[in-house]
Specification:
481 residues; Rossmann fold; three-stranded antiparallel β-sheet; 20 helices; 49% helix; RNA-binding
Length: 481
RNA sequence: GCCCCCAUCGUCCAGCGGCCUAGGACGUCGGCCUUUCAAGCCGGUAACACGGGUUCGAAUCCCGUUGGGGGCGCCA
């Protein structure tokens, strides 16, 4: 049997980190077992579904490197893989259920339902609708003829219970006295989530349903529908949810939750994937930075953690730095070039590109986020340096600053224009004036880059070039007064 | 209110009855390196929620309490 999993987001929002993690676990599971990943769109809620969200979900999945074998945009034997195109199919199943007695047309009013809830609260029992207002078939037909279609509810067998073996949580049991006769087809003829999702899982021959824990208590409903369809029940796996740092459900107020936000703030997809994978699963051997291929090799639903994880990006930031340092110098330099061009709003000349390539490894070593990288080398490409006033105040007000700047100007004229040449000249100059490296070099750094924080000085000087370096030292000297 | 799930350092994860004086990672603190900032290296800090059982022996099994999360819609 081929394993078939699905990821079925509703396009009612951007793909968020929790959804991304669910998709990833599905993907890791099915790639591990050599099965098929189906992507469908659970868009029965046409009011809230938008094309923008639909596109964002696909983009984000692709960015994460999660590919699918069947479904949205790639096609397959089951049509568009959009639930909004399958309302006829859902209605057909619902009506067949009515025919077989598995479901019924219901006549309960909202007041009736409220009364049941109130009764339950008063008696300390579950607020469960038990079908007491179900319509006789003749009555239902009469209402339909009059143009007033009642909703269809599933007849949950009571007494009874549904138990299943969850791949991550173990055996779970729900007594049917706690499961109410849920609506499967609304009075406007549209299917509810329970119906549409389950019918799709059956029709698409899904073997493993891996999803968030928020639907754990709906699972008996899905199993009941599956049984009523005469289909074989898939294996369910419910993943714990992600919480915010305060332990509460992850939401907007905890900061960015959309995958795209991480992409935009300079995270690498490899790092995000690794971090998400580790958040609730362990590859074993006390290892955490693990390449994707290795994750596929080791992934196992049984090893997925049951407890909810706090989504804390501190470790993600560290991990992103690790992945940046893992990039080949060529790749990083190329990415840096693009980033700088965007930052500057223009293309770089070949000479500029060369000096950037020379400095790139030094920047790569320090980077945590791709977005912080362009500003660090901006000094290479500007005519007018903007000084960071805090830096200036810290290093330019000492007596050594002026001496060092003056001495450096002279030293630079004669220096061999290489890292070693510049270093030798500068160190000799400092020694001559009996200035420590710390006191003497920092003013040069600020004069050259505008900030007391920069890539290493000697390489930076070489990259900026003799003429421009001298000009910057003189400009700083003038500014000191 | 009812149902379900969960419970190890601040955070993530390891531990699946003896190997635990509980391990790794991030963070944090201290040190080394050093031209800044990082990176790197070394070291420290810090947890089995509580109470009962079961067992020769429990972080590991069972029950209860407490705490957290989820669900209880003609939303998904």
């Amino acid at each position: 049997m081929t394993f078939r999993v699905r990821f079925a987001p509703s396009p009612t929002g951007f793909l968020h980190v929790g959804g991304g993690r669910t998709a990833l676990y599905n993907w890791l599971f099915v790639r591990h077992h050599g099965g098929e990943f189906i992507l469908r769109s659970d868009d029965t809620d046409s009011e809230r579904s938008t094309d923008e969200f639909r596109a964002d979900i696909l983009d984000s999945l692709r960015w994460l490197g999660i590919d699918w074998d069947e479904g949205i945009e790639v096609g397959g034997p089951h049509g568009t893989y959009r639930q909004s195109d399958r309302f006829g199919r859902y209605r057909e199943v619902a009506e067949a259920f009515v025919g077989s007695g598995a479901a019924y047309y219901d006549g309960a009013t909202s007041d009736d339902l409220k009364q049941i809830r109130d009764e339950a609260a008063a008696s300390g029992t579950s607020p469960v609708y038990d079908g007491r207002h179900r319509l006789a078939i003749e009555e239902a037909k009469k209402q339909i003829a009059e143009g007033e279609t009642p909703p269809i509810r599933f007849a949950v067998p009571r007494p009874g219970e549904t138990r299943f073996d969850d791949a991550v949580r173990g055996e779970v049991v729900f007594g049917h006295s706690n499961v109410d006769d849920f609506v499967i087809l609304r009075s406007d003829g549209s299917p509810t989530y329970h119906l549409a999702s389950t019918v799709d899982d059956v029709d698409y021959a899904i073997t493993h349903v891996v999803r968030g824990e928020d639907i754990l208590s709906s699972t008996p409903k899905h199993i009941l529908i599956t049984q009523a369809m005469g289909a074989e029940q898939p294996i369910y796996a419910h993943l714990s949810l992600l919480n915010g740092p305060d332990g509460k459900k992850l939401s907007k107020r905890h900061g960015d939750t959309a995958i795209r936000a991480y992409r935009e703030s300079g995270f690498l997809p490899t790092a995000v994937v690794n971090f998400l994978a580790i958040l609730g699963w362990s590859p074993g051997d006390d290892e955490e930075v693990v390449p994707r291929s290795e994750m596929v090799k080791r992934f196992d639903l049984g090893a997925v953690s049951k407890n909810p994880a706090v989504f804390d990006t501190t470790k993600l930031e560290w991990m992103n730095g690790v992945y940046i340092r893992q990039m080949s110098p060529e790749t990083f330099a190329a990415d840096l070039g693009d980033l700088v061009a965007t930052d500057l709003g223009r293309d770089l000349s070949p000479a500029e590109t060369q000096s950037l390539v020379d400095l790139a490894p030094l920047v790569q070593e320090r980077a945590k986020l791709l977005t912080e990288v362009a500003p660090q080398v901006r000094f290479l490409f500007v005519d007018e340096l903007e000084y960071d006033e805090t830096s200036w105040g810290k290093v330019m007000t000492t007596p050594e600053a002026q001496v060092s700047l003056q001495g450096a100007a002279t030293a630079m004229e004669a220096a061999e224009w290489t890292h070693d040449g510049v270093e030798t000249a500068l160190r000799a100059m400092l020694e001559q004036h009996e200035i420590s490296a710390r006191k003497g070099l920092q003013p040069l750094r600020v004069a050259l880059t505008g900030s007391s924080v920069s890539p290493p000085l000697f390489e930076s000087i070489v990259a900026v070039g003799r003429e421009s370096t001298l000009a910057r030292f003189e400009a700083a000297l003038r500014r000191i007064g």
